[in-house]
Amino acid sequence: MNGCCLTVTGVKGEGLTFDLLDETRAKTNLKTSQTGSRVNLESSLRADGKVGGHFVTGHIEATAKVTKWSRAGQDWELEAEVPAGMERYLVPKGCVALDGISLTIGKVEGRRLNVWIIPHTYEVTTLRDRKEGDELNLECDLLAKYVEKMSGAKK
User: Fold this and answer.
1) Which site in 7, 90, 137, 138 is 20 to 30 Å from 103, CA atoms measured?
2) Helical residues (DSSP H) of 59-141, grouped into ranges
3) pLDDT at 155
4) CATH code of residue 147
């Protein structure tokens, strides 16, 4: 839900129930969700399924703050600022997941990144509900984190 790896613990009509850890509440934007809020929801990839995009696990590290959200022709430009220390995982043409939506980074300037949102993504996700100042769940590139760990790079 909004990019968080959660287990459905109950189903009632069209409603779903999840258990949230204190860490999930602390690190994600789910702490501000209200009953009836629209959310991005996607089932897990099956082990025998086709992998055709970025590696996204649903393990949210933090939230990123929307600093710009504007129309650009037929598309949309979203700029967000990540917490200090997370910028090391951001590279142009790399990937990032915001609210569970796997996106390609356009540019990086310090702690800010921008992504371009095509009309389809705008229409079928909750990004259209977001505004400047909102928090988005942030999952940085898993491969970058493994490279950092295996190379012995210091955080």
Assistant:
1) 7
2) 119-124
3) 66
4) 2.40.30.20
CB atoms within 10 A of CB 125: 20
- Domain annotation covers residue 44: no
Give alpha helix (H) positions in the chain.
Answer: 22-27, 119-124, 142-151
Q: State yes or no: pLDDT of 39 exceeds 90.
A: no
pLDDT tens sequence across 115-133: 999 999 999 999 999 999 9
Tell me, yes or no, whether 128 lies in a domain. yes
pTM: predicted TM-score of the whole model, two decimal places: 0.88
Q: Does residue 9 lie within any of the structural domains?
A: no
Q: What is the pLDDT of residues 93-118, one digit of tens each?
A: 999 999 999 999 999 999 999 999 99
Q: How many CA atoms lie within 13 A of 113 on its CB side?
A: 27
Query: Which residues fall within 8 angstroms of residue 4, CB to CB, at 6 or more apart?
Result: 24, 28, 30, 58, 60, 100, 137
Residue 47 vs residues 50, 58, 101, 108: alpha-carbon distances, Å:
8, 16, 20, 33
8 A C-beta contact, residue 132 and residue 68: yes
**Where in the sequence is the domain holding 100, given as residue range(s)?**
62-151
